[in-house]
Amino acid sequence: MADFEMLGVGQTIEIIDIDWDTLHQLLDGEFDVSTSTNEAEEELERVLNPIKTEETMLQEPSYSKRFKSVSDAEIQDLKERRQSKATKSNTKWGLNLFQEWSVEALGQPTNFHSISAPELNSHLEKFYAEAAPRPNEKRSQSMTKQQASEYHNNTFKSIRSALNRHIHDIGRQFDIVRDREFRESNNVLDGKLKKNLQDGLSRPIKHKEIIPKQDLDKISAFVFGEPTPISLRFRIWLLIAIQFI
């Protein structure tokens, strides 16, 4: 027993023997004090902020999305918009012409979704050799009878381009203009065009009439007059049209 008068009271404290090894083991086992700043901050964060449950996470307000979602139909619509109405109309005309020939010559329309490249090449060989415009009185009046019985060279190329566009539009992975698998059919078309030219069946391309000099002077006076952004734009257009078109 010992007296501690410095406490200001007549208090008696009993001093006991302490097992210091046991005390150190208890402290080491119960308290793992981190000396890392990051770990200490993480521990403080866990204490101050309650753990979010699944329910509270679902109740969090949704944020506004930056990018909009589009459907497959909208994506397909964007693909179709890459072609003008005139181009789509030309594609439809060329396809209908080929299918009319296919029914008459082969007994059935051609299935472009399943036909193989070699088989289509064989069909195109005959088509290019046999294709002809429908008899038309107005057509016969504007040209000779022999010329009226044949398509113009540019029309043949337009038909081939129309078929090629249709093939691409339905997702087939071949090109009837450039692929080697269609070399033979393209050779037939080239030979057909040259034969028509040699036989005089290919009509010459009809160009627009030449602009009269007085009209050309009026145009030049405007585009080469006072320099403005608009007149400069028309000046470039005029020079390109005269020199290269």
TrEMBL record:
InterPro entries: MAVS (IPR052787). It comes from the Eukaryota. This is Uncharacterized protein. The lineage of its organism: Eukaryota, Metazoa, Spiralia, Lophotrochozoa, Mollusca.
